[in-house]
Amino acid sequence: MGLHFHRNPDGTTTGRNEANGFTVTLAEEEEVKRQLYEDAGWEYTPPPPPVPPGFHRFSLVHDEFRACGFEDERYAGLRARPPEGCVPAGRGCLALECRRPGKTLLDAVAGTVAEVRTEHGLVMNSLGVDKPEEWYDADTKNGYAAHIVAHLVLMAADRARRLGYGRKEVVRLLDATGIE
Question: Three-state DSSP class for 36?
Answer without folding.
Answer: helix
